[in-house]
Amino acid sequence: MSDLTEVEVLWLEKRIENRIRFGRIVKERKLDRHRRVLSFAPGSIFGFVRWTSNDFGTIISRIDILRAVAPGQRCSTVPYVTPGGEILLRLSGWPKVERVLQITEAVEALGIDPAVVAPDHWHHVHNRLSVNENPRQYTEARHQAWLRRQKVIR
Q1: Scanning 14, 94, 121, 148, which has its CA 20 to 30 A from the CA of 60?
Q2: What b/e sequence results for 122-148 when a residue is b if at least 16 CB atoms lie within 10 Å of its CB, and e otherwise?
């Protein structure tokens, strides 16, 4: 049994797309031309986007921001994720997923990898999804405070 959290990503044109939006992949295994298994180290954070459609349009849009777990650690089951992960954010419906992707892009615009932001940021994103509301952005100052706290804890 591996210490890594594995995520199966899948792409079937105009039907299914399971992809990693961000995260530090430590291992990749190709299953076939449509499927790969990506692995993440314990404690790492990654964004997993799932989208499915049929002849009438999109039927599922979902984003999960997860933290990979260590062996024996409690976790929640998530489709395509083995053994599962700690859920930091789980949303469905295109308007919400799109808003989270915009928030992710805003973090990246600061030059910060979304995989290293404070986990609490992802825990509270769902409270700031109103399109009319200007969400409290993750700032460089908040990120530096998070990094300093991490040094004290270690």
Answers
A1: 121
A2: beebeeebeeeeebeebeeebbeebee
